[in-house]
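For the sake of transparency, this paper describes our internal protein records without simplification. The record that follows is passed on verbatim for readers who wish to inspect the format:
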Amino acid sequence: MSAVSTLKITSRTLELAELGHDSSMPSVQPLLEPPYAVGADIPEEISAGVRWGKARNIYPYPMQESYSRETRATELTAVVLENEHVKATFLPQLGGRLWELTDKATGKALLHTQDRIQFANLALRNAWFAGGIEYNIGTRGHSPTTCVPLHTAVVRTPEGQDVLRMWEFDRLREVVFQIDAWLPTDSKVVLVSVRIRNPNDKTVPMYWWSNAAVPQSPATRVIAPATHAYATDYDGSITRVDTTSFHGADATWPINNTQAVDFFFDIAPEERRWEVAADADGDGLALISSAQLRGRKLFVWGEGVGGHRWQEWLSPSDPGEPRRYAEIQAGLAQTQFEHVPMPAGASWQWIEAYGNAGLDPALAVGEWDAAVAHGAQRVEALVSEATIAKALSDAGRWADLPPSEMVVAGSGWGALERVRRQHSTLDWIDEAGTPFGVETLTADQVPWLELLNANAGIVEKPFEASAAEVPNQPFGGASSYVRGLDWEDLLTAGRNASAEGAFHHAVMVHARASTSAGDQSVVASLYRQALDGTFVAGEPLSAGSQALAHRGLGLTLIAAADVAGGLAEVVAACAADPLSRELLIEAMTLAQDNGAPAIALDLLSGASESLAGLGRVRFLEAKALAALGEDAAAAAILTAGVEVADLREGVNSISELWLQVCPGQDVPAEYQFSMK
C-alpha cells in the first residue's frame, strides 16, 4: 500500500438490536447511583469532587428503554481513517463510537468489538452497548449521547489533512462538545482532539471519560505509570490500594480479579498520561493523551459467574468461544466520582492518541516498576510528547474551520438552543466549525420553536403596553421536554397559558425540585392545577398528558410519604394510557417497592396481552406473587424462563427471587448477573 492517509465515508452492516422509541415519561426521578463511602486515605481534592456537581436526574433527556434482544442486519454509516500502519472505523450514528482499530503490522484488533450489538441497561438513559472507544460527557455514567447520532462532517484543512468532526449540544450541562479525529500519513496512532465549550454565564460541573473496550485473554496485563490506585469493588467503598497486591493477587492482570472492580490509577502530576493493555505478545491498545486528561482507569468484570454472564449478555458469542473484555479509560478527573469545575465561557481542548503499544512481552510481564519504565519508553517511541503538543496546536487552529462535507445529522436541540439564547439575550458559541442547522429541527423541537417565535420581541412584564396588546397564544403542548427558567416564564405568561403549558411547567419544576416537603408540595399543586385547573384558552390536557400528570403527581406524593395517594395516582396514569409500557412497568415497580404487591397484580390484570407478556412485566408479576406468598406461581414463571432485556447493571433481583421461590435449586446461569 502506498504511504498515504485516507478518509473514506462508507457503510458497515451489523446485527443491531432495535433501540425503539424514546420514553414519553419525563426523566424527573433521581439517578439510580449507589452511595459510596470515601475512605480516610482519600485526598480532600477527590473527596470534595465526590460531594460536588452530581446531577439530580437526566432531565430533559428521555430514557431509552424500549429495546429488545432481537437483532436484524442494519446498515450504518461508517467513516474509515487508514494509512499504511493503522485502520480506524468510526460509527457516527452510535454516539461517534470508534468501533474498530486495527494495527496493520500485526493484523491485530486493538479494540473489543462484535458483529452483533445488544443494548443493555448500563447508561444514564438506560440503553448502552459494549465495544470500541466510547466518549462520555455530563456526569458519572455512560453518556446521554452514547446511542444516538452525532452531527458529523469532514473538514479539509489548509495543509490538506482530512479531519473527521463529530459534535453535539449536551442538554444536561448545556455545553457543546466536539470530537476531531485524523490520521497523519506516517502516524502509527489515530489522533483525536476533544473540545468542550461552556457558553453559560456560570461555572458548570464537567465530566469526560473516554472508555476503550480491549480484548482480554489470560495473558492480558494493564500497565499505567502509578504504584497505587483508588479502587471500588462495588461494595460501596473507595480505598487506595496497591494494584499489584489487591486481595492477595496482582490485579493488573484482569484475569486475577474474582469480581468486578474499578481501579483509578494515582498518577503523579509530573508523569505522562498513558495506559496500555498488552497481550501475550506485548501488543495491545495504548491510550495516550495530553496532560488535561489526567485520569486513568482499569475496569474488569471479574472472573465470577456474574461477570462472565454480563459479558456474554453484552457480547454474545458462539458456544464454547467466550469473548472476554476489560476496559481502559481516560478522564478529566482523578476518578469517575468527581466533577471538574468548568468556568463560565471556558473552552477546553486536549489530545488523545490510540495505537499499538508493541511492548517487549518479557518486560511487560516482569516486575511492576520495570514494566512501567519499559511502557513509558515504548509510548514515547509510538507518539512523542512533542507530537502530542503539535497535534494540540494543529487542533486549535482547525477547531473552527467550517465543515467541507456533511455526513450525518445529529439532533435539532443545538439549533433550538441557539434560538432560545437569542430570544433570552444569552451568550452562545461561534458555530463556524460546529453548525447546528435549521434543517436538523424535527417534531421534537417545533412546538418549542413556535413558542419562542410567537413571543419574539414581547416584553415579559404584564404591565407593559406591548404585552397587553399581544393576543392570547395558548401553548399547544409537546411530546418532548425542555428546561430553564426562561422557558418557565414563557409557559406561565398569561398570553401563553394552557393546560398543556401548565403540565410542562409542573414537569420543569419537578425536575429541579429538591426532596424537601416544601418543594414537593409546590410540585404537587402544579400537577393538580394542570389536571383540574380552568384555563381561558386552549384545549384540555390530552389523554397522554393527563396520564403523565397523574404519574408526576404520584411520584411527588410518594416522595412526600403519602404512599397511598401516590399509588392511586400512578394507577390513574395507567388507566389514562393503558397501552403505555413505561407507565405499567414503573407503576408495578412502585407498588412493589412500597409494599403493595396486590396493586401490581391489579395493574397487570388490566394490561393488554402484549404488555403482560414482556419479560420485565413477567418478572414483576413473579415478584408480586412471591410477596403475596404464592411461591409456586412465582416459581412457575421463573422456571418457564424470563428474559428481562433492560436488566440493570449490578441488580441481582432475578437470582434473589429464584433463591426465594425455588429453595434448594441452583440458580440458572442465565439469571446470574451479580457484580460481586
